[in-house]
Amino acid sequence: MKQALILRHVREEDVAGYRQPLEAAGYKLDRVDVSDPAFPALDLRAADLLIVMGGPMAVYEQDRYPWMPGELERLGQRLAADRPTLGVCLGAQMIAAALGAQVYPGPSPELGFHPVDVHAAGQQGALRHLVDVPILHWHRDTFTLPERTELLASSPLYAHQAFRRGANLLALQFHAEMGDDERYDQWIDKWPDVVRASGQSAGELRAEQHVHGARAVAAGRAMLTQWLETLR
Q1: Dihedral angle, C-alpha 134, 138, 142, 146, nearest 10 °
Q2: How many CA atoms lie within 13 A of 201 on its CB side?
Q3: Which domains, from first to last, does the chain contain?
Q4: Residue 159, pLDDT score
Q5: How far apart are CA 16 and CA 34, in angstroms?
Q6: Do 169 and 132 touch, CB atoms closer than 8 A?
Q7: CA distance 232 to 108
């Protein structure tokens, strides 16, 4: 059985709705937290698929997170070997940084459900499933587009919402895995400062989830299913 290693920066951010297509594609799911004492020695090249999840920290705060430089170095080794890798939110930013891009604060937090503008390159691949679908956003940082990658999606606030490099690398700034997972309530409760900074209320965010969550996750699962089929 193939192994998918889920790299978690916080326990509140896991694969959620992506579990179903991953298991359907024959992956055994394992997890490692950056707080695990064994993490600094872990070879990130080993798993058949590495999924780098999100978190509230920023790539440019490496002085606050002693595990981060090592993660970036080992992630870079995996990417250099062209091993299948998926990045979500902070995970996408970490991938961008490991490929030499800059990560920096965006104009304002982007929270809530709204569609992304899927470019022609994305519509020809797995992101076609996201066209006109309100997808969850929960971030406040962005990045320059790494060299030799292809931009797949944008939003009015953030030009770089998704990119790929060949068949084996997909980086997503948004959370197409979230929408019907109870951990979304934990996000709202745990990070109220981010909610306030977005100009929205907890009630508004939960109401959006009720309206759009199931459709968003269905689209995210269809996207991931197609992408997994293309891995080499």
Answers
A1: -60
A2: 3
A3: 2-230 (3.40.50.880)
A4: 97
A5: 18
A6: no
A7: 37
Q: Which of 87, 109, 91, 132 is nearest to 188 (CA)?
A: 109
**pTM of the predicted model as reported, rounded to 2 decimal places:** 0.96
| pLDDT reported for residue 182 | 85
Residues found in the chain: 232
Amino acid at 203: G
Listing DSSP states for the chain in one string gives: -EEEEEEESSTT---GGGHHHHHHTTEEEEEEETTSTTGGG--TTSSSEEEE---S--TT-TTT-TTHHHHHHHHHHHHHTT--EEEETHHHHHHHHHTT--EEEEEEEEEEEE--EE-HHHHTSGGGGGTT--EEEEEEEEEPPPTT-EEEEE-SS-S-SEEEETTTEEEESSBTT-SS-THHHHHHHH-HHHHHHTT--HHHHHHHHHHHHHHHHHHHHHHHHHHHHH--
- Per-residue model confidence as pLDDT tens digits over 151-160: 999 999 999 9
List pLDDT tens digits, range 195-230. 999 999 999 999 999 999 999 999 999 999 999 999
- Region 174-198: what's the mean pLDDT? 92
Please give the average per-residue pLDDT across 182-206, as a whole number.
92
Q: In angstroms, rounded to a whole number, what is the distance separating the alpha carbons of residues 45 and 3?
A: 12
Q: Which of 161, 163, 175, 166 is CA-nearest to residue 231?
A: 166
Residue 5 has pLDDT above 90, yes or no: yes
Token couple for 86: 């998926």
Residue 181 has pLDDT above 90, yes or no: no
